[in-house]
Amino acid sequence: MPDWERIERSDEFRELVKRRKSFVVPATIFFLAYYMGFILLAGYASDFMGESVYQGLTVGYCLALTQFLMVFVLGIWYLRKSENEFDPLADKVVEAAAEAEDARFVRKDEGTGVKA
Amino acid sequence: MVSLFAEVNVEALVMAAIILAITLGITFWASKKASSAVGFYAAGRQITGRQNGLAISGDYLSAASFLGIAGLIFLYGFDGFLYSIGFLVAFLTVMFLLAERMRNAGKYTIADVLSFRLNETPARAAAALGTFAVVTFYLIAQMVGAGVLIEKLVGINFSLAVILTGVFMLCYVIFGGMVATTWVQIVKAVLLMAGIFMMSVFVLAKVGFNPVELFNRADANKGPDSTFSLAPGTYLPKPLDTVSLGLALVLGTAGLPHILMRFFTVPNAKAARSSVVWAMFIIGFFYLLTTFIGFGARAFLGEGGVEAAGTGGNLAAPILAEFLGGGEGTFGGSLFLAFIAGVAFATILAVVAGLVLSASAAFSHDIWSSIVRKGKDSEHEEVLVARIAAFAIGVIAIIIAVIGGSGLNVSFMVGLAFAVAASANFPALLLALSWRRFNTTGAIVGVVTGVVSSIFLVIVSPKVWPGADTVTGSPIGWTLNNPGIISIPLGFLGCFLGTILSSGKPSEHSSYDELFVRAETGLGSERALEKVA
Prior knowledge:
heterodimer; A: mainly alpha; two-stranded antiparallel ribbon; 2 strands; B: mainly alpha; Sodium/glucose cotransporter
């Protein structure tokens, strides 16, 4: 078994967790706030949401479209960020652990069809 | 037999038969791969990210999403669209907080993650309770919905339709396990996207591919007493109810056992991550197109279509398809109607198969193998028990759906399933993965509080008390239909108080450090079966 406690305290692991957190926490706060803001407007400001932007196109529908946009952008952004930043850091943790533990636990990293 | 097949729609029946033939073929092919535990529960972890993205979409987009949301938009306009937004944004919650970490830490069920560093027996029991509660409401809702729709679309009797759906669902799960379930979901996702894309093109072609013109016509086509509006507040008149529903939708998906179980079918966390993004794009595109179907139905069928569309407007999409194909009685009209009816049928089958599989895994893997047999059973026995459990769960669901009949309110039960998932499963899973102090007592108190509070608040809600559109309908004066805004914080509070007020120590077989490192890096995570050429 790998020495989990030692890995948890290692600089590589701390760095990975810190970097990932510094993206995931603000992103989660942002999307929940943006979504709940939309829901609050839908609940409490239905007149505003029903106002026309251009003929039958309402403020509500436009704001709804921005929710879709937010999901797609955050999805792709996180995918990129993970491949370029978090995955290499995680690999480092695994490598360091493997060196220390006689390479018994190697992370499987194949068959995803996604290139880093 | 006359009463059973009174007005059978032959084209729709042929379409359904084609879909059944394809899916049974898949099941036969899959049956050889489903004999081991990892094959039966997790398709050997050989599903790619893209395939899993399609399968998640197939697992997630129920008939309530397809026919239900199109129908709600047709009847109420903007409020129907609010559901779509919640269902979609929910995948950000799944992606950021659970998907990869579940894949890295778990094996077959959500209980694997919850019990990783807690006392195994009570933690698995709590997770199984959460799974059964969600699956029960969701499955019965889907079965009743299936019966109603097939009765209307194909023309066979409600009970017969429920039984047929149940039998095919059981065939996929029992003989083909996760491999068959996955491919049935993939086929369904492709069919569903093709169907809704075709309909959208037809709808947009009628307004010169100008969506604004579609909204104009839809708005012009509401009668004087119409519930339809381009502004919110028609279907969900109480603002606080809207907020409560929105909260349950955005957090509920991250507690749905049949969706989370899909992350165990891919080889690693990277594939889990890419499958969520694939699912987001497929599901997002789908929900954008449902607005064209809903507003299109309003623009072209108008107020006159309201009665034909039935309860909740569920038949608006099929009727619109008939209209787009050339109208009632024309060859094109019945063909398009039959195609959409077939797609709806495939949609239901894929969702119920995923649900039954997750519940049977919770029984065989968590209750039978880990709690009753203390891990001393063979793999063969566990898979056999899973098949028997799937059979029993399926039969019970069929019986409840047939007895409850078409009067059971489908959207109400789906809402309840999301509320339980968000209030019971989600807080416990999230805290197990990210809070060092979290302990067994916290998990049990949290899950039980979440399940009990959400079910209780629904039982006393105005929806259950007839004549309750006034404030005083509920026996305790409760006025919200959606429990989320109370039950979700209660679920978290239960986890928190249970943890800090007990002296419970984590179990000794593994530490939080182990779970944390595994979840974040994938070190020591369950490996995929080698591909056999």
